[in-house]
Write a structure and sequence with these properties.
- By secondary structure, the chain is of the alpha+beta class.
- The protein is built from 8 helices and 24 strands.
Length: 429
């Protein structure tokens, strides 16, 4: 993880100035224990191998280790940048250009402005790559604002339709607000609101008392599923995991089950009807940083987005996870909010540059991504979109979470980067 607050919280993949190559790599590589004899190298093993290779000046060997690591985290753009740097360091400029071109072909951009990439910028093919990167940053899609409120201090993350209005959950304050009347919260919880779902007259919230929450550190860290009476705002039930857990998203099943994605300890947990404890449903070794969930009860699948590993389909009955096949080569990483619409997936892809709202076409069984369509990207009104809600054939989402304005301590680091609360939409039909 990088040192920025957003990356520490949710492994967001922001671009930053790479600096000198050894320091760039050192920020990424993690020391790990020696693998057991005969065991396949883990990600940590491979990072340790790459670091050792760079220490002895063997950029080619470091690149080979990073290539293997990329197989374990196929959508890590940090790894791609460092693989490019190893090629440049070993004089393999054509290979470096090819790796960067693959990213450009996915509609994305990499920051190659630092010293490690200077020789590449002198390559005959770099001008065409730079033009393609520039074209990829252009805004796309209509800018459609449904609600705007001047409040800039909420750090809003959760959004849920309520009739003609909206319920908004704040990470900073733990408040659930109604867009019809911002003057008083519907409920005020002892943790930040990361997601909201509704069952009848009750709200179900994913709540975390750490990180950007203003009361972080006052109590031991915990991640909770909280049931709230909508009319009174009273908490009717709260079930928690303490320690290394952060619930980024939740989903409700027709049988009353609640599923939550844990972004710190990569796993999916469930709260079954009548139970008072959260149990582990899936903890696949391929999981790295879980974010959005989308339940498709028709297919019998729980889709989960992993920032670095892509999309998975999980059997809610067994917990078995299957990686979504990607024959088109589209970039399926960096997805935060994840939603179902007419058998396809809608994703808020804020862990890439440019940030985008995408629709992912699935095959009949739901195990293969046939194509990725960009619905919106890089709109000027955005300040990191996060979660939303599908209403009919329209997707509404929080366009201004303001995560980029916050520092490592969970406090606004740059007041000028705070934008008003803005709910925007995009047509899905």
């Amino acid at each position: 993880m990088s040192g920025s607050f957003q990356d520490l919280v949710r492994n967001r993949l922001r671009s930053s100035s790479p600096g000198a190559w050894p320091r760039c790599l050192a920020a990424l590589l993690l020391l790990a224990a020696t693998p057991a004899l005969g065991a396949a190298p883990s990600y940590g093993d491979l990072m340790a191998e790459a670091r050792a290779a760079m220490t002895r000046g063997d950029a080619a060997a470091a690149g080979a280790a990073l290539d293997a690591a990329q197989q374990l985290r196929p959508y890590s753009l940090h790894l791609v940048r460092n693989r490019i740097a190893t090629r440049v360091a070993s004089g393999r400029l054509d290979e470096a250009l090819a790796l960067a071109t693959e990213v450009a072909a996915r509609g994305l951009v990499l920051d190659l402005s630092g010293d490690p990439y200077a020789p590449l910028r002198g390559h005959a093919g770099y001008a065409a790559l730079a033009q393609r990167f520039e074209a990829n940053t252009a805004p796309r899609g209509d800018s459609r604002t449904a609600v705007e409120n001047p409040d800039r201090g909420l750090l809003p993350e959760a959004l849920l339709r309520d009739g003609e209005h909206w319920l908004v959950g704040s990470v900073r304050t733990g408040a659930i607000l109604h867009t019809a009347d911002f003057s008083s919260p519907v409920a005020l919880l002892d943790g930040g609101i990361f997601d909201l779902e509704r069952r009848g007259d009750r709200l179900i919230a994913a709540v975390n008392n750490q990180l950007a929450y203003e009361g972080a550190g006052e109590e031991p860290p915990r991640a909770s599923v909280v049931e709230i009476e909508l009319v009174s705002g009273e908490v009717r039930r709260s079930v928690s995991l303490e320690g290394d857990a952060l619930f980024g998203d939740i989903e409700l099943a027709g049988d009353g089950s609640v599923y939550a994605s844990d972004s710190i300890t990569p796993r999916i947990v469930s709260l079954r009807p009548g139970s008072d404890r959260l149990t582990e449903l899936a903890a696949d070794p391929r999981f790295v940083n879980l974010q959005g969930l989308a339940l498709d009860e028709g297919r019998g699948l729980l889709f989960v987005a992993d920032y670095l590993a892509g999309l998975f389909a999980v059997d809610p009955a067994t917990g078995k996870a299957q990686a979504i096949a990607n024959p088109s080569g589209a970039h399926l990483g960096g997805i935060d909010g994840l939603y179902l619409h007419r058998g396809d997936l809608v994703g808020v892809q804020n862990g890439v540059s440019p940030q985008r709202i995408v629709r992912i076409r699935l095959d009949g069984p739901g195990t293969t991504a046939l194509a990725l369509q960009v619905l919106q990207q890089a709109l000027p009104a955005w300040n990191e979109p996060t979660h939303g809600d599908v209403v009919g054939d329209e997707f509404y989402y929080l366009a201004t979470s303001n995560w980029p304005a916050y520092g490592d301590d969970g406090l606004p680091a740059d007041e000028t980067r705070l934008a008003p609360l803005r709910i925007m939409s995009v047509a899905l039909d």
